[in-house]
Design a protein that fits this description.
The structure is a single chain. This protein is of the alpha+beta class. Helices cover 19% and strands 31% of the residues. It contains six helices and 21 strands. The strands form six sheets. It has a six-stranded mixed beta sheet, with helices on both faces. A five-stranded mixed beta sheet has the order 14-21-20-17-18. Strand 20 and strand 21 form a beta hairpin. The radius of gyration is 25 Å and the shape is globular.
Length: 368
C-alpha cells in the first residue's frame, strides 16, 4: 500500500478539488499548418522588391530584374513530455472509492498539463518579442496602464497587423491598474459572456484576458499578440489507464504529449511584450546516458542561431540566468550530440549566447 497517502477511518466521499482553468494560450494560436505524420514542416515566404522610377529610354525601363528568392523557416517539434502514477486498489478501497483513476487523470491534465502548455506558449511568444526588440519595461501604474497598452497597439498597427482579432494576455496586477485608469473604463466594451471567459474588456477589436502569474513570464505586465503570428501543434496526446498490470494491484496511469510552439518569421511583429525584464528563449535540452560516466547532450533546434554558440554549466540545481547575462566563464558545448561527464552534479544548464557571451536562450535537464 502506498505510504504517501493518508488512510483514515472515514473519508468524505467528495474530494476537495483544487481550482483549475482551461487553456488560455489557445486564444493566441492558429492551426493553419498541419504536422500530421511529420515532425518537421518547412514554411516558405517570398520577399518583395523595391519600387524604382520608370525610365523612358534604354533596355531596362522598369529597372534591372532580379530573381525572387524564397525564405524557408523550418519548424521541428521538440517537446516530448510524459507522466505516470499508480492508484493502489487497497488505497482506493480504504478511501471510500474517492481515488478513481479516471478522475485522477482528468485532474492531472487540468492541473499540470494545461498550465505547462500555457506557460510554454506565453514564454515562447514573449521571448520572440524580446529578441526582436518588441519590448517595453516602463513600470506600470494605475495612471499609465492604458497608455502603455495603447502604445503596444500602436506598434502592431504600424506593422500592418490586423486590428480585429488581437488578444492581450495580462497579469491580474496589470488588470487591476487598468481598471483604475478612467481612460480605459471609458473606452472598454464588456459583456457577461466575456467576463465568464476571464476577458475584462475589448478595445478596438482587442480582447484583454487575465492570466494567473504562474503561467506568464516572471514580471509580465501584458503580452499583446494576434493568432496569425504563432502556431502550436499537439502531435500526440496519449493517455492510458491499465487495470491490474503485472506487478500492480490497482491501476497504472500513463500519459504522453508531443507538442511545441512556433512564431512565424514574417508575422513576428504581431507580438509585443511589456514586462519588468526581458525573456530568454527556451532551449529544449535532453541528456542520454551512454552506460558509463558520460552523457550525450541533445539540443533542439540542432544548431545555434547565426553568430551564437552554446555553453553549459553543471550543478546541484539549475542555474539562474538573465537575458543578456554574462556567461563568459561557462564551458563551451561543441554541439548537439556532444558527450560530457556530469560527475556528481544533478542538473545541466545550457545557454545560447551571442559573440559577446551574453545569454539569449536557456534550457535545463536533470542528469541524475
Amino acid at each position: 500500500m502506498s505510504e504517501n497517502i493518508n488512510l483514515a477511518s472515514k473519508y468524505a466521499k467528495k474530494v476537495d478539488e483544487r481550482f483549475t482553468r482551461e487553456s488560455q494560450a489557445m486564444l493566441a494560436l492558429n492551426s493553419d499548418y498541419s504536422f500530421t505524420g511529420v515532425r518537421t514542416v518547412n514554411v516558405y515566404s517570398i520577399p518583395t522588391v523595391a519600387m524604382s522610377d520608370y525610365q523612358r529610354a534604354g533596355d531596362h525601363r522598369y529597372g534591372t530584374p532580379n530573381d525572387l528568392s524564397r525564405n524557408i523557416q523550418t519548424l521541428t517539434v521538440g517537446r516530448d513530455r510524459a507522466f505516470t502514477f499508480i492508484i493502489d486498489k487497497g488505497d482506493k478501497s480504504q478511501s471510500q472509492m474517492v481515488m478513481d483513476a479516471g478522475k485522477a487523470l482528468g485532474r492531472q491534465l487540468k492541473e499540470v498539463w494545461v498550465p505547462e502548455f500555457d506557460a510554454y506558449v506565453f514564454r515562447k511568444l514573449a521571448a520572440e518579442a524580446t529578441a526582436r526588440g518588441n519590448f517595453a519595461s516602463t513600470p506600470i501604474t494605475k495612471n499609465n496602464a492604458y497608455e502603455m497598452f495603447l502604445q503596444a497597439m500602436e506598434y502592431l498597427g504600424n506593422h500592418n497587423v490586423p486590428d480585429k482579432g488581437r488578444v492581450a494576455f495580462c497579469s491580474y496586477k496589470f488588470a487591476n491598474f487598468l481598471k483604475q485608469d478612467p481612460s480605459f473604463m471609458k473606452a472598454g466594451d464588456l459583456s457577461q459572456e466575456m467576463v465568464e471567459k476571464g476577458i475584462i474588456g475589448e478595445v478596438d477589436g482587442c480582447r484583454i484576458v487575465k492570466v494567473p502569474s504562474s503561467r506568464l513570464p516572471s514580471g509580465c505586465a501584458f503580452l499583446l499578440t494576434h493568432p496569425l503570428a504563432a502556431t502550436a501543434p499537439k502531435q500526440l496526446e496519449e493517455y492510458k489507464t491499465h487495470d491490474s498490470p503485472p506487478g500492480i494491484s490497482g491501476w497504472l496511469v500513463e500519459g504522453r504529449v508531443v507538442y511545441d510552439c512556433f512564431v512565424l518569421e514574417e508575422k513576428a511583429d504581431a507580438i509585443f511584450y511589456h514586462g519588468s525584464q526581458a525573456v530568454l528563449r527556451n532551449l529544449n535540452v535532453t541528456a542520454a546516458h551512454t552506460g558509463t560516466d558520460e552523457i550525450t547532450v541533445l539540443v533542439n533546434p540542432g544548431m545555434p542561431e547565426d553568430g551564437c554558440s552554446w555553453l553549459y554549466k553543471l550543478g546541484n540545481q539549475a542555474e539562474t540566468v538573465a537575458y543578456d547575462g554574462d556567461v563568459t566563464s561557462w564551458t563551451a558545448l561543441t554541439g548537439s550530440g556532444a558527450v560530457i561527464k556530469p560527475g556528481a552534479n544533478k542538473v545541466l544548464t545550457v545557454v545560447e549566447a551571442d559573440s559577446s557571451k551574453k545569454a539569449k536562450a536557456v534550457g535545463f535537464v536533470r542528469v541524475q
